[in-house]
Amino acid sequence: MPKKKMTFENALNRLEELVQQLEAGDIPLEESIKSFDEGKNLVKFCLQLLDKAEIKVKELEESPSGEFNLSSF
């Protein structure tokens, strides 16, 4: 079965699960390290999606002098 494409919401939910597991301290050290690494990758993924979203929200706007400036919605 093909893996479902990871969304921002899926990644954030998984990250919250990992944080709860790590804070509880009920998992062995090796599993904690794997969970930490997975969490780092999820944070990186979420930040990339947020950066892409920020770029989409900005638009080019022409000033009266004919110059183009980025402006936020």
Structure explained in plain terms:
With 73 residues, the protein is α+β, with helices and mostly antiparallel strands. The protein has one domain (8-72). It is 63% helix and 14% strand. The protein has two helices and two strands, in the order H-H-E-E. It has helices spanning 8-24, 29-57; strands spanning 58-62, 68-72. The chain has a two-stranded antiparallel ribbon with strand order 1-2. Helix 1 (8-24) packs antiparallel against helix 2 (29-57). The longest helix has 29 residues, at 29-57. The N and C termini lie far apart (40 Å).
Tell me briefly what this model is.
By secondary structure, this protein is an alpha+beta fold. Helices cover 63% and strands 14% of the residues. α1 (8-24) runs antiparallel to α2 (29-57).
